[in-house]
Amino acid sequence: MTNLVTGATGTVGRQVVAELLRRGQSVRALTRDPAKAGLPEGVEVVRGDLTDAETLAPALEGVTGLHLITFGGPYFAPLETGPRILELAKAAGVRRITVLHGGGPSLLEDAVRESDLAWTVLMPVEFMANALEWADGIRVDGEVREPFAGRLSAMVHEADIGSVAAVALTEDGHAGQEYVITGPQVLTLEDKVDTLAAARGRKIRLVELSEQQAVEQWRAAGQPEDVIGFLLEAYGNTPPVGRTVVDTVEKVTGRPARTFAEWAQEHADTFRS
């Protein structure tokens, strides 16, 4: 079987590619710029753009498993091409689809759910990789500057999202399922900072910002206003799903979810000056 991974150079897409390869699958990766993909040997890298559905037609030839993202373009703009992408997938003979839920309404996800294909919706909570946003501040100033220090997160290792996707694409029993995917622990902001400090071998200060200070920091970093609004809501009023551990990873893959301590050790050099 050949599996096409869209968003293949992204945080989760790379992990889907890696896990499919580990399982001995044939992998085709879709990207706007194949020359910059930097994907492992053995991956067939093809050019395509989800915002232009017709570019997927050649990439879908011979594909039986398809991993989809629901956004395209800057700042995770929702795709408007979802229904056409599903038409092309069905015409190509795709049998299984995984969709990375984007957190909001999606024409593509709606089209997938309404199809008669074997679909699985992946609904991960906060990515552990989000901690990479702190890398510069930690390396330069030895600190993390964030609002809502008391917030809780059941953050998930992106490799576990990839593992769940790969199982759903290659094994029976996952059709019609919505999988909330979390890590094995609920962490405070202080827990995360302490874990990163232990991994890099040096202390890190946690500086709690007011909401206004956080907004100013995000604006200075170029975040659009709708993203800032989302961050204020997500961090200031984290919904129960984002701070409740579920055992999806173990049930689907047969092994426990990876911890943030494991993630921090894997990326420790990124946080060292």
From TrEMBL:
Residue intervals of the NAD(P)-binding domain: 7-101
Protein origin, superkingdom: Bacteria
A Pfam match: NAD_binding_10
Cross-referenced InterPro entries: Ergot_Alk_Oxidoreductase, NAD(P)-bd_dom, NAD(P)-bd_dom_sf
Record-given protein name: NmrA family protein
